[in-house]
Design goal:
The protein is mainly alpha-helical. Helices cover 74% and strands 0% of the residues. Helix 9 runs antiparallel to helix 12 and helix 12 packs across helix 16. The termini are far apart.
Length: 304
């Protein structure tokens, strides 16, 4: 047998199809991930640096100029006399206000479901689980009718109150307190004379900071990105959160709506920049809360 034949035989033995197949599948999946997820994000980041014509003509992944980014920024925040600023402020008010109510309700509710016994406890827990797995769109109509019954449509409370209803947060807190809070510690505190309120505020709540941070993050992100409910209950553009405002901005872009006014200076670069500005608060929050999120996700993983 020649040296070439020996070399080819060794190569076949070293790289068997059964061993190479997982690497090929992994490579294909990574390529698909790059194609469908990473490239659109790169395009979105580069689009504000080009004019509307350059977005269509030039390489989709090419960079335009920093001057064009400044121009797109001025056009965006001049739209409807600073509507983008109002929308961002509204989103902050809606998300922040509902976050406070969410924590004030979800944390005590989860603690009560996990550590106290009362009539109807199991029924309430089942209702919480069923509501948690229901699609949010199925609750929009009954919530709208209820808000209309109490004449809250078009007010700030028509957004904040439904946003504050967060059964997933209740369940996360329930899981944490039910699996990770030492019962001996609570018993010792009761012997020392602590009331149930003192047990919750001085012992349980400080130990639950990771899961509270996790609930706060998920609640804020969900409220910030919510579109459907504010779109239905807020008839005035002055009250829109940024997600609903983006829809109005889209309808004012001639590239997507031919009947839109040509003098609004709202084109594809301005629309792409608006999307980046809308997701920037969530991105910043995620970057600065990664440690808390990891701690919260691991909370309750092992019983102490």
């Amino acid at each position: 047998m020649t040296q070439t034949a020996l070399f080819l035989t060794a190569v076949r033995r070293r790289f068997r199809p059964s061993r190479a197949l997982p690497f090929l599948v992994a490579g294909l999946l990574l390529a698909l991930l790059l194609l469908f997820f990473v490239l659109p994000v790169i395009w979105l980041l580069l689009a504000p640096s080009k004019t509307a014509g350059e977005v269509v003509r030039d390489n989709p992944l090419s960079f335009g100029s920093f001057q064009q980014i400044g121009t797109a920024w001025r056009h965006l925040f001049a739209f409807q006399d600073g509507a983008m600023t109002r929308w961002l402020g509204n989103s902050a008010v809606y998300s922040g206000g509902s976050l406070v109510l969410t924590l004030a309700i979800s944390v005590p509710a989860g603690y009560a479901l996990a550590l106290t016994n009362f009539r109807g406890r199991k029924t309430l827990l089942v209702i919480t689980l069923v509501t948690m797995i229901m699609p949010q769109a199925t609750l929009v109509l009954p919530i709208f009718l209820e808000l209309n019954r109490f004449h809250l449509i078009g007010t700030i409370w028509s957004v904040i109150l439904p946003f504050s209803f967060y059964p997933f947060g209740v369940y996360l807190v329930y899981i944490y307190f039910g699996s990770s809070l030492p019962r001996d510690l609570l018993s010792a505190a009761r012997i020392d004379g602590c009331t149930e309120w003192q047990l919750f505020t001085r012992i349980a709540l400080p130990l639950a900071k990771p899961v509270v941070g996790l609930v706060a993050f998920f609640s804020f992100v969900g409220n910030w990105n919510n579109f459907f409910l504010p779109y239905l209950v807020l008839p005035n553009s002055e009250q829109f959160p940024v997600q609903v405002g983006l829809n109005q901005l889209l309808t004012s872009t001639p590239s997507f709506n031919p009947v839109a006014g040509a003098g609004l200076n709202v084109t594809i670069p301005e629309l792409a920049l608006a999307i980046i500005v809308a997701i920037l608060p969530v991105l910043v929050l995620f970057v600065f809360s990664q440690r808390t999120l990891v701690s919260g996700m691991l909370a309750g993983a092992s019983k102490e």
